[in-house]
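Example record

One chain of 211 residues, shown exactly as stored in the release files.
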Amino acid sequence: MNFLYQMARLSGDSRWIDREYLNIADRLVDYIQQEDGLFKTVVRDSKKPPAEDPQNGLHRINDDLNSLGLLSAFHVTGNHKYLNAIEKYINAAFDIFKSDGGFDASRASIPIVLNILHETEGILECPAVTPEKTELAFRKLLSAQSDGKTNRRMNGGIIEEEGRNFVCARSSCYALIVLLKICAGVGGTLSATPFSIKRPLASDFAMQVQL
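Predicted structure tokens for this chain:
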């Protein structure tokens, strides 16, 4: 969803964030987010989670940036149901927050949660989230970096699972997104920063089709 949001921002074309875009946001809230606040895989026909989790609970908190997509939808529409869904997700994450700063078996969830906390600063207030817990999560993420001893090319990458010695591109990319924002002040990469956009005229669309 955030890809479409960025396309609208860069192109100035609101069709990237029209009805189809909001359909995705609505499906996330209405079907994929569960009562406990977490996002889960659902069966297409029933729109319910399967009896057995296909990921065996490994990525309970890793929402694959769905929360960032919902924040984008909030900025597009002003509809607080998307913001409420994010708050519900954050509360669910901190309900199972561990004393060592992690959330579940996969460290991929840490930068995901830190990212949405950063993006909603000043917009959402979640009592369960404290500076101490946020710092613990940040330190846990940094401690997951590879020292490069196994393979120097992995130096600095994120080791996704406890007890493993190889880095994961997914977790490393998630970490880069949030570390650039928090540590370097670079917020343009996968961000839900609000922007103004003018909806194109039908004549403009016709001209683009002809071209």
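Notes: Residues 2-189 form a domain with the Glycosyltransferase fold (CATH 1.50.10.10).
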